Amino acid sequence: MLLKIRNLKKSYKISKDNEFIALKGIDVDFSSGELVSIIGESGSGKSTLMNLIGALDLDYTGEISVDDVDIKTMNSHQIDNYRKDKIGFVFQSFNLIPHYTVLENVTISCILAGIDKKERDERAKAILKKVGLENHLSKKPNQLSGGQMQRVAIARALINDPEILLADEPTGALDSETSEQILALIKSIADEGKLVIMVTHSQSVAAASDRVVRIADGLIVEDISKKEVQPEQWNNAKTQGHSKGKLSFFNSLKMAFKNMKEKKTRNLLVSFGSSIGIMSVVLMLSLGNGITNYMNNMMQEFVNPLVVEVTKPTESSQSSSSLAPDPSTFLNEKEVFTQSEISELSDIANVESVEYGFSTTSMNDNKIVYNDEEQVVTTIATVSQAMTNSSISSGTMPSGNEILIDEGTNEKYAESLVGKVITVEFKLNDTLITKELTVSGTYHSSNGSIANLSSAYVDYDLLTKLAQDNDISLEPNTIYLVAASEDDAQSVKQAVTDLGYSGSQSETIANIFNDMISTVTLVLAAVSGISLFVSAIMILVVLYISVVERTKEIGVLRSLGARKKDIRRIFTGEAFLIGLLTALIGVTSAFILQFVINTVVAQIIGYDVVAMTVQYIIIGVVMSVVVSTIAGLYPASRAAKVDPVIALKRD
Ligand SMILES: Nc1ncnc2c1ncn2[C@@H]1O[C@H](COP(=O)(O)OP(=O)(O)OP(=O)(O)O)[C@@H](O)[C@H]1O
């Protein structure tokens, strides 16, 4: 006995304490090779019985055994395999997947069973030939007639060589001539040894079957056999073998891709919308990077890379947190170096020579006067090897009784001061010194202008002499360590930091700015991240709609043996692909914008301010895919939970 049903009862819950008993105790046996028609009034319980036999509905009492195995004893994995291998479903409304070709519709249960492409195509073509559709392989269902569609559905049901074919009104939607052809096909399937159970309202279909079982009010009221079937007549050994495989990850992505393609415009629009967030994040990070590069470039342009400037950390800069020291720190008088500190610094490996420097900073006392017009020069400092000639914009470096002023200050005067004698006033250890000096030249003021501070430079010897003249002992408060190579300079810089000294003021200022830029960049990127949240919701909504639209398709796939996991994978796969598409659009737009912004800005400052890196692209892609996939989890789990029986009832 292939199928044994004992005392099968099924009730539907209508409300909390109200249920409807659809099957009231069915006892029946079916054998291989039988063509059975189940007939009965509408609502008598025929479809309910079919769903139970097909294990689409597991909520019943009693026994349904196939090959002496009770469905109730199977775990969910075995149930999925049972649906995939033992049962083939044919529906009244064909239930083909509209965006799949004939061949794809037929091979779908092989794909779900993890059968490789070559074998499944061979099987499908053989069966499609048998049902007379070998010339329609690449057509979509809407290009077929009703009879052809039902043939495809029958081919699909047969491809895994099931033992039982369940057909719910297979001819219900067909005209009488086509019905006869389909019936003949079904008959031939039973003749080959399969158990075919059909629900029908048609007298002629019932008349053509071997056995007619009438159901009324949830009970079998009549069971007429016209043909005696020998239980042992059929060798039920499967010709194709049981499939133990499952839907591969690649195939689930392929199915997801098909789904996605079907709703091209919608998915493209969502991806476009979502890509704005990804684009902004990538662009913001790249902009921050570009500006930082620009700043560093500016800093380094006028600085001799072989020279390491050393100052002593002031108290306030020591105590302030590392992130953003107060720029006013630099207005404090710098501490001078003792002889032992100087020798400690000279002893650092790779230091070739040591140069002394001094700077004095004051917001009010340091100034230059020319033609009675005075300008505050916040810092008077000594020139050193740290300054390169490229920093000079006009004239020369100062020597003897000369002073180098910054371009900005020079421009404040009606005529250029280069070569002119000016009066310089500045405070040296609390003593105000006034001295007439010749302006040797001007330098690019990019460094100082960062914090709107200006500096003027004199020779260290001049400062020493002025100190002596005024009985002031001048100790250096800046030490320049000269290294032989840039690499050496880096190791010297590290050693200086390790000893607890600070670097140059401009470097420290640059670091503060770099930190500020990083913080601002991160904040901006985070703000752009909010749009990612919006895209996540968009993707969630779109996929949710997709689940609702595909409910029937989900039911069909489940009836063909798709596991809940497979359904979840297909929808998560779709979310993943939307994420990839979003990333593609986002990164491409960021690239285009980078080009546009850089072209425009380069004309103004001569530098590419947007500097995209592979790292940012990876961040963008990963973010997009992760956000999208996470957004897809909920719709995917809803899809997995769809009840196949209810789903199949959908129109
Ligand atoms: N989900 C459900 N909830 C409550 N009652 C249900 C549900 N599904 C079916 N029923 C009831 O169970 C009974 C049997 O339904 P079933 O669909 O099996 O009938 P049927 O014989 O196939 O009818 P038809 O020939 O019209 O398709 C009907 O009275 C129906 O109202």
UniProtKB/TrEMBL annotation:
PROSITE patterns: ABC_TRANSPORTER_1, ABC_TRANSPORTER_2
Family statement: Belongs to the ABC transporter superfamily. Macrolide exporter (TC 3.A.1.122) family.
Location relative to the cell: Cell inner membrane
One Gene Ontology term, aspect cellular component: membrane protein complex
Gene3D superfamilies reported for this sequence: P-loop containing nucleotide triphosphate hydrolases (3.40.50.300)
InterPro entries reported for this sequence: AAA+_ATPase, ABC3_permease_C, ABC_transporter-like_ATP-bd, ABC_transporter-like_CS, MacB-like_ATP-bd, MacB_PCD, P-loop_NTPase
UniProt cross-references to Pfam families, sorted A to Z: ABC_tran, FtsX, MacB_PCD
A molecular function GO annotation: transmembrane transporter activity
Lipid bilayer topology: Multi-pass membrane protein
SMART domains for the chain: AAA (SM00382)
Domain ABC transporter: 3-242
Keywords annotated in UniProt: ATP-binding, Cell inner membrane, Cell membrane, Membrane, Nucleotide-binding, Transmembrane, Transmembrane helix, Transport
Domain of life: Bacteria
TM annotation in the entry: 268-288, 522-548, 569-597, 609-634
Protein's name in the database: ATP-binding cassette domain-containing protein
Keyword Disulfide bond: no
